[in-house]
Amino acid sequence: MFAVSPAPTAASALEDLAGLARALLEGERDATANAANLSALIFHTLPELNWAGFYWMKGGELVLGPFQGKPACVRIALGKGVCGTAAQQKRTVVVPDVHAFPGHIACDSASNSEVVVPVMKGGRVIGVLDVDSPRLARFGDAEAKALEEVARIFVESSDLD
What we know:
alpha+beta
């Protein structure tokens, strides 16, 4: 059984995240199972989160995938909110205060900061990894880089269309 113990600090949690993700996905190629387990890993490993999960590109919009947290927005248009912006621009977006982000979509009113990483395969966006926190300015470059690595591990470890 795979066990996750909360890390003593945010910095050590980030250092451990890629290794934990690799170990968790080892031997499993199913994308849904892998996304579900990564959502749980992120949610229970990184401190001060209230949502962690995936949205997938379907029919030209983002559609809710596996996640941990309160129920979420089901569909997000490209270019809308933090998730739609990250997908459209094919780049990670870190937002210290979501209430100051133009067009922010408030799926959970408790969220105050957010980081969204595009999940890329073959140069195209297949989805996004979205992580929210109730704490303002919770995410920075270190979190963005760690989550980008997790997204890469997901793509390498999963059978994707």
